[in-house]
Amino acid sequence: MKAITPSGALRRGVTASPVALGVLVAASLVAPGPALAVDDKPCAPPVPHPVYEKVQYCPLSRGNVPVYANHKKESGIIGYLRKGGSANWFFGYQCRDGIIRRGGLANDWWAATKADNGKLGWVPEIYFAGGDNFEPDAGLLRTAC
What we know:
Order of helices and strands: HHEEEEEEE
Low-confidence stretches: 1-35
Radius of gyration: 21 Å
Keywords: Signal
Distance between the termini: 48 Å
Protein name: SH3 domain-containing protein
Shape: globular
Organism: Actinomadura keratinilytica
Strand order of the largest sheet: 1-2-5-6-7
Largest sheet: 5 strands, antiparallel
Mean pLDDT: 80
Number of helices: 2
Strand content: 35-45%
């Protein structure tokens, strides 16, 4: 029997056996993912909120953080979070979308919140304390954008 290389298998439309697929799936489940820097200041665990069920308090690196209409810079600023530190809560989810840069910082992770003016929006995680460029907060839950 002639051996088929992966590229040859694609040209011939060869399918893998269920056993081979099982081996590949099992290997992908135990293979380590990419190494991430440690987020030494993750968001706190969810706490009850009277209106939004549960929220998470997240430490910000400064005050006067812009809140955008959605998870893209082009959506425009709709409000601000005036206080820094862990005074601000987020809806307990984050998603990956538009890249935003500030100085040497860059991130494509965004967290949903309510601005101080009452408008709902998204904060780029470059304003979160801890973590590294292009990393999500280690404590905040994730969702699809």
